[in-house]
Fold:
Amino acid sequence: MLPFKVVYHPEYDLGVPDHIFPWHKYRLMRDALLREGIAAREDFLEPKPASVADLKRVHSAAWINALRRGTLRFSEITRLELPFSQRTVRACRLAAGGTTLAARMALLDGVGFHAGGGFHHAFRDHGEGFCAVHDAAVAVRRLQREERVSRVMIVDCDVHQGNGTASLFASDKNVFTLSIHQFNNYPAVKPPSDIDIHLGDQTGDEEYLDRLRRAYLPALSEFQPELLFYVAGADPYCEDQLGGLALTMEGLKTRDHLVLGAALERGVPVTVTLAGGYAADVDDTVLIHTNTLRAAMQELERVQRKPRLAAPAAECAQAASRNGGALKKVPLLSRCEER
Structure:
């Protein structure tokens, strides 16, 4: 058995085989975990759809009502780039409920793994880029309302910038957003996250990991979140059809260990979502996602074998000196780190 639960629902698969988004990857990942003996059936939890009230804490009533009633304009459907139906709406609500459930499990077990979610291009009043509902934002607002957490960090490692995330949390001092992504890629307009790491085309493992490490570790130590959401996109992979970075399988594994390990050894629970992944061979995407789960398992077990570590002194000193000794939401590398 796994040391944490995996949230999954069969209705995540929209059954659209000719779409660039491989909706069946969720089922393939579940099957792989069971087949390889990594997980048992009792390790999986099925979520319920997020409530309308939870959705409206993040999105406008007009957008949610249009989704539920099926009254989106043609331009809105085109921008969404999804086959729109009530099946799609249900899948989006399930994904939001799934990330909320995974976040609850993270607070219990240290890691909550959602074999779905990561729909970071959804805005308050519209969706785009395959994302109609921002599942992580729904989870954050629900847990904040229940006073389970206050300070949350979102680390987005999808190849595409988390524009919806940046927009939704732009004025929220209790949510710190970091996005590392290919600059010359979707979205064309990139609202500023607290830290944006803009990467050039064909950036490989060494530069990617160095820039992520130098931004992420000090920010984590300074902001001291009570919960971290890891948007673990598979699309920085060198053979991804919608990406233009050059990370290898090994580089992506190292990325996972870096993000997960640094948070867990500081006592910060982690909610993992899958986000994008469009490799020419869907088995590559499934393997990348499965490797992320393996990394979560390994890092959680590693940390549980030794005492919790305080943030390294050098990081704390560096962070404090940049903010006059105070821990607050002020980006360490300026609000937007340019290329």
Summary: Strands lie at 6-7, 44-45, 111-114, 152-156, 175-182, 195-199, 227-231, 270-273. Residues 312-336 have pLDDT under 50 and may be disordered. The radius of gyration is 18 Å. The CA atoms of residues 235 and 305 lie 32 Å apart.
